[in-house]
Structure formats: structure tokens, C-alpha cells
Amino acid sequence: MFQVGTDWNPLQAHLKEIILKKDKFSETQQLLYQMHSFVHCNEVYDGKKTTYMDEIWDGLDDKTFRLMPTNKDDTIAWNIWHITRIEDLTANLLIDRGKQVLDADWLTRLNTKVTDTGNAMTDDEIIDFSSKVDKIELENYRNAVGRRTKDIISRLMPEDMKRKVEESGTKRILQEGGVTEQGDSIWLLDFWGRKTVAGIITMPITRHQIVHLNDCRRLKEKCKRI
Fold it and tell me: In this structure, how many other beta carbons lie within 10 angstroms of the beta carbon of residue 121?
């Protein structure tokens, strides 16, 4: 079983130490591959080792995927959507300055009209989203986002790490529906807008995903007791 304390935290600490050092760029890139592989299904990388994301999907029945155990919780469906949307937006629009993965075809496949990260959703909205989103296609969307980010990592150069996030990128996130005008959502633009590429990689591309996969593991165990 994946353990954050032993399998992840030392890597996150080491990444923080070397990510801005040009002479450590090759090591940084390999470390990013390793950490990013943990938060995605094994098919995104070599398909040989079971990842943290694999553990979450393994044996995840439809009820558990969609269930909000108490009003203090959210759902596994929401958590996976949330981290995947944020990775899609920040990796593609802020780091790569390209196009995000999500498009009209994906929305149809996912059976949702939601395009934002879900930060400002009410409990009722989370439940409604979770009851409708296609579980298999959410996994497929997450895999597609993971493969795109893997490619972006492969094309990074040492000088990219200190590059500031461009205002045009954060504006595109709003224009393309990645965040809403609600306070609990739009604050993300200011948060991301103050970062460098290295900062985006550190949070949210790596650490943020582990936090929410931990929530998924907790919810999975909690739902077993209901």
C-alpha cells in the first residue's frame, strides 16, 4: 500500500531543494516523472507498478464513487474531478501555454456541463455532479490529462522553472470556464498568478494531488462502514 510518509514526503522535500538548480535539472525531471506517476494510473507511464491512483480505483464500486457520507465530506468523484481539472488547467494553460484537454467531446463523454474545478460547489451541487458524471470516462479523462502533463514535463527546459505565470494564462482559465466568478473559485487565479512554473509544479501539479488522493482513500474506507 502506498504510504505518503515514506513514499512521497521525502521526494517532495527533495524536489523543493533541487527544482530551481540548473545543474540538477535532469534529476528534477526524473523526480517529476516518478512523483507524477504515483498520482496517475500505471498505464500513463510504464504500466508495471501499482500507483496510488490505481489503489483508489481498485475495487471502487459505483455507490462509493458517488457517495457523500456526511455533510462534512465531499465525494470521491468530486475529488478526482477537482484534481484533474486543476492539473489540466495549470499544466496546459499556465506551464505549456497551450490548449487544455477538456473540450465539448469530453464533456459529452463525461455526461456533465461542469467545466470549473468545483471549488465553489455546494453540497447539493457536488452530489448532483457526482450522481451524473460517467465514472469510466472520468478515469479516461484523468489518464488523458496525465499523459499530456507527462509530455509537458518531457519538454521543460531549465530556464522554464523560474518563468513567471503569465496574466494571459490566468485570464484564459476564467474565459474557458476553469473557474467561476464566485469568491471560493476565482481566488485561484490570484494564487496561481503569483507563481513561477516551479511553483505550479510544486503546488498543484504534485502536492495538491496527494492531498486529495488521501481524501479519496479516507472516503473509500469510510463508505465501507456505512
Answer: 23
